Amino acid sequence: MDLLSQVLSSLRIESTSISRWRLSAPWGVDVSRFEPGFCLRIISGSLCWQGEDSRPIWLHAGDTLLTLRGSKGQLRSELGTRCTAIHELPWQGDSYTGLGANRQPSSAQQLQWGGGGEACELLGLAFTFQYSSSVQLLSSLPEIIVLPQGQAPAAPFFTSAINHLMDDHQPGYQAVAGQLSELVVLSLLREVMLTTNSAASGWLKGLQDRHIHPALLAIHNTPQQPWTLTNLAQQAKLSRSAFAARFKRIVGMGPVEYLSRWRIQIACDHLRNSSDSVEQIAAQTGFGNDRTLRRVFKQQLGIPPRDYRRHYRAGS
Questions:
Q1: CATH label of the domain that carries residue 284
Q2: Whether 37 contacts 115, CB under 8 Å
């Protein structure tokens, strides 16, 4: 399986909220305190997005706005419009109390709001991911992603899927909404990753390099193998020195450090989702013995594996 398929296959939507926004100018919505990821598809009209430290971005019918981890910013009908916090708007539908494993809206939400001027209609999908090592890889993507009309083949499916669920109040809604949401988000993510340009960083930029890609694939496919700089360089068909320099320049860290960080992320998955001992996890992740895993784990995360597991399960 290719590396991109591995990453996408491991992502799971934990919770989702579907919405339709019918707005009329002037209007402004502050999403600075909205923590889940979200995507907005502009059905008609236009809007302005402005983050805390960025210039305004105008979006029009057919465009899609995507952020994977929330973003501090505002949506407006025009520059300078006063904004209202998203949680204070007159939403209709299941009361929104946040998203999470134990908080799943049982129906879609609808909003009709604004000053009565030019209309703008949006379809929204908010989501959280289940924790996995692959979620960490999404940090390579920009905070805000704009998919213009025509550059997101999955966007029309997004529109059909959300419209299909807007007035669904039957039993089973949550299961169907979760599956459709996961398909929409993964399809959009795939499109973003395949079309991301030189702004990409980390593993995503390495994915586009013909020498670094095979080394990354080897690390992700078999992290338990006793990889060294020498045999990773062989995967890349480069000398040790050329490979080490190229990997660090493109990915942002050395290959041995990347391998270690990836192994720790997999160890975190095991600690959170299995009852395997630290000794077993050390063998599964290539650390060789539990002493090495404990040392590297504490170096990277600041706490020992046992405390990490205890902290996670106490918060579940």
A1: 1.10.10.60
A2: no
